[in-house]
């Protein structure tokens, strides 16, 4: 054995203990850590860009990394990171994620680990939490992008089945032109169209409702009536990225009866609202979709690399993703035979963090996170609407606040970007830019399990301090 490996084997307890100390240090300072570290801290030193001939060993390398680069790590796991739709990691989920790397299980159905059984149980518990019916199957994938990919891939196979074509065998060219219809398809779904050979130009944007990002059902019906016979997938939204708008699922289902299409619901974060009795009405009818995306890293606060795809068409899923090899088990139709159900052959034990989190916090714990985030988002939205220099671009439907600057002198986009730069420099809150109805806007998405009212107060103070007319003396402010 290499001398460094041998030494690290002997030092394994110290290595793990030191790693625990680093993690504990990071978590203890998370609320004070800037949500966006300075650009200079995000750069590697020249010697760390090259491969060493002789390694330093684990302890020395860990120490070197932390001393040089800890300041370049964002506080994105903390309570005031409102950028994108980014959750953190609850204590139970974080602990489980550490174990996932330690026990290093390959979670396909290999008959040599309990991993597949736990994944299946997690899927069943998630269906119970979100009120999804028994005929849905599901599996864990790396993220919402891959969950959308899987759902659309199964939909592509279904389109072929309706016409006597096995797309998995014959290729998408045998099916001919396909149309993908949506009012607000997430960019990850558009990427999936490229990867699946359907093509980005297959996406046809349907008109939104007049006062919402939700799809205009009348416009969709008119388009379907004008394009009879074209294989169609409808991408519906359960929580758009700007305003958390939900499409009208009952109306979509009624249309599907007259114009057969595959209905995929991107519910990456919004689907988790189903765990709250106060908000489950937003998802009425989604139980009859053909495929659904949920991202556990968002509102379920599981560490990255944890999303779930659901479908009610298990046999079609196996047709797409089956893996044939002389040394592997042949495809057998069962909901836990993950080797034949997902894009990956080797898969890390992603289900464990969510399984542990569900056991640790139960239905009531997940519900409390969701309802608290929604309440705080509405509180932030109301405060911004009442504050000088800000206006809401849309009502706060759920957990996303979409707002803009007012009384801007000069170009609105430039003013918006400078405001976000000031926020980043201030280090208290992280928001991301967007456009809403053609107007430059700013998004704050609340999904972190630690976010409380005190964080909304700090966030609002930072936003007010970073307004263009108040930022000339802006400096770093202690978080107290």
Please give a structural write-up.
The protein has 480 residues and is an alpha/beta fold. The protein has 2 domains: 3-75; 94-357, Aspartate Aminotransferase, domain 2 (3-Layer(aba) Sandwich), CATH 3.40.640.10. Helices cover 39% and strands 11% of the residues. The chain is built from 14 helices and 11 strands. The strands form 2 sheets. The protein has a 7-stranded mixed β-sheet with strand order 1-7-6-5-4-2-3, sandwiched between helices. Helix 10 (249-258) links the parallel strand 4 (232-237) and strand 5 (262-266). Helix 12 crosses helix 14. The protein is globular, with a radius of gyration of 24 Å. The chain starts with a helix and ends in a 15-residue tail after the last helix. 44% of the residues are buried.
Describe this protein with a few key phrases.
11 strands, single chain, 480 residues, Aspartate Aminotransferase, domain 2, 7-stranded mixed β-sheet, alpha/beta
Write the layout of secondary structure elements.
Blueprint: H1 3-10, H2 12-28, H3 58-69, H4 91-103, H5 115-130, E1 137-141, H6 144-161, H7 167-170, E2 179-182, H8 187-195, E3 203-205, H9 217-226, E4 232-237, H10 249-258, E5 262-266, E6 291-295, E7 307-311, H11 314-321, H12 351-385, E8 390-392, E9 400-405, H13 412-426, E10 432-436, E11 439-445, H14 453-465
Parallel strand pairs: 2-3, 2-4, 4-5, 5-6
Antiparallel strand pairs: 1-7, 6-7, 8-9, 9-11, 10-11
């Amino acid at each position: 054995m290499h001398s460094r490996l041998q030494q690290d084997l002997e030092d394994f307890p110290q290595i793990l203990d030191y790693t625990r100390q680093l993690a504990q240090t990071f978590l203890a300072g998370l609320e004070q850590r800037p949500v966006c570290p300075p650009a200079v801290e995000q750069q590697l030193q020249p010697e760390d860009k090259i491969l060493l001939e002789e390694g330093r060993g684990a302890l020395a390398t860990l120490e070197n990394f932390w001393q040089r680069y800890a300041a370049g790590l964002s506080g994105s796991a903390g309570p005031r990171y409102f950028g994108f739709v980014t959750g953190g990691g609850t204590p139970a989920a974080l602990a489980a994620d550490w174990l996932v790397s330690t026990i290093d299980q390959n979670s396909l159905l290999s008959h040599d680990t309990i991993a597949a059984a736990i994944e299946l149980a997690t899927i069943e518990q998630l269906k119970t939490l979100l009120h999804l019916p028994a005929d849905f199957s599901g599996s864990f994938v790396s993220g919402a992008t891959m969950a959308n990919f899987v759902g659309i891939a199964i939909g592509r196979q279904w389109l072929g089945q309706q016409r006597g074509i096995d797309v998995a065998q014959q290729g998408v060219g045998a099916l001919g032109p396909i149309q993908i219809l949506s009012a607000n398809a997430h960019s990850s779904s558009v990427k999936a169209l490229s990867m699946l050979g359907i093509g980005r130009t297959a996406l046809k944007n349907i008109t939104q409702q007049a006062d919402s990002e939700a799809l205009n059902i009348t416009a969709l019906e008119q388009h379907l009536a004008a394009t009879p016979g074209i294989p169609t997938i409808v991408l519906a939204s359960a929580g758009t990225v700007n305003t958390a708008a939900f499409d009208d699922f009952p109306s979509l289902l009624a249309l599907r009866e007259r114009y057969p299409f595959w209905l995929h619901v991107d519910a990456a974060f919004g689907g988790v609202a189903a765990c709250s009795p106060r908000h489950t009405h937003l998802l009425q009818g989604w139980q009859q979709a053909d495929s659904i995306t949920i991202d556990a890293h968002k509102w379920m606060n599981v560490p990255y690399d944890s999303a779930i795809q659901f479908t009610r068409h298990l046999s079609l899923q196996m047709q797409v993703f089956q893996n044939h090899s002389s040394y592997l088990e042949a495809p057998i139709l069962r909901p836990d035979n993950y080797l034949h159900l997902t894009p990956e052959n080797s898969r890390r034990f992603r289900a464990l963090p969510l399984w542990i989190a569900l056991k640790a916090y139960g239905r009531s714990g997940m519900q409390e996170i969701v309802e608290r985030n929604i309440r705080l988002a509405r509180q932030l939205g109301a405060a911004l609407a009442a504050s000088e220099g800000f206006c809401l671009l849309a009502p706060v439907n759920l957990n996303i606040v979409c707002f803009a600057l007012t009384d801007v002198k000069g170009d609105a986009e430039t003013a918006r970007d400078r405001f976000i730069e000031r926020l980043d420099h201030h280090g208290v809150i992280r928001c991301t830019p967007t456009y809403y109805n053609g107007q430059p806007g700013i998004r704050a998405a609340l999904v972190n399990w630690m976010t409380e009212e005190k964080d909304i107060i700090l966030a609002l103070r930072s936003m007010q301090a970073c307004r263009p007319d108040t930022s000339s003396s802006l400096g770093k402010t202690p978080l107290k």
